[in-house]
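## retry 2 of 3
previous attempt timed out at serialization; input unchanged, resubmitting
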Amino acid sequence: MKPVSELLKNRNSTVHQVSPSVSVFEALQLLADYGVGALTVMENGKLVGVVSERDYTRKVALQGKNSKETKVADIMTRDVITVTPSTEANACMVLMSQKKIRHLPVLDGTKVVGLISIRDLMDDIIAEQQQTISQLTNYISS
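## retry succeeded, writing output
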């Protein structure tokens, strides 16, 4: 498999972010607007957490909290597991599986340069398999 930097080249490089001081409701609106499952939580240019749909369901909805009154800081995942652009995609898959997470921020030093999801990794695996099938089919046909 390829390094994360290759996966990032094939998609929009925008890293959607939110401040820890905004309401969970505002963060949910951003998730819906961007069509993503997680946002990086940034404060003073530094990654301080990740907030996801899973955080919302487990820490707000199931606990009967109000999403307009609860702040992102109250529900975000603080101990963020990150990777670098040179991390191999298969290492990301292992990490996601072991830690039971679906999103990995990609850091180049302290700068967030991307957010890889399990979907990104699965899409890459499917594309590689389709390419292999095509090559094998061409080999057999010739």
